[in-house]
């Protein structure tokens, strides 16, 4: 009777099988570290010059701008002083790349037809734009899905959405932020600080937008 013939070394095969999971684990760890470095390292670099941000509303329009206790330091709310509160255009404050365009939290049920509907959570429909040099702007509580998509290149003054009251919002308005990396900072418009730096007390003022064609430099 012929016996089965084996070639190679069974023990070495077992060692190779044991090494494979370790190799895959090592590759996975390296991949995770590379991904973390890709996200974190840019945030450690010094920011670039502040862009010449403009108000995120139409050229020549005057809006109520302000904050209130519990709103969040440096957060700014925009309320229109003329026309319908719902649906007014929201414009990009400066040119950049859209990095977020979707839903933050939940939408709730406040609409022009049902303005007292249930509140949602978070920012509702929102957009985030990367302006380079670690500078970002955020636009929250939009009426409907944003008019831009992730990866879109936008120019200053381009419409990205409409005023609404989605998310945790009591009335139609735009919640707006300027950020350097992960850090919120005081909003500047047309080269001037807004003066909204904290939410210790209610604070409102009226500002006129210079988000006009050719304003960006």
UniProtKB/TrEMBL annotation:
Name the chain's protein: M23 family metallopeptidase
> InterPro entries recorded for this chain?
Cell_wall_metabolism_enzyme, Dup_hybrid_motif, M23ase_b-sheet_dom
Where would you find the membrane-spanning parts of this chain? 20-41
Taxonomically, which superkingdom?
Answer: Bacteria
Give residue ranges for domain M23ase beta-sheet core: 87-185
CDD domains per the record?
M23_peptidase (cd12797)
Q: Which UniProt keywords apply?
A: Membrane, Transmembrane, Transmembrane helix
Species of the source? Micromonospora zingiberis
**Care to name a GO molecular-function term for this sequence?**
metalloendopeptidase activity
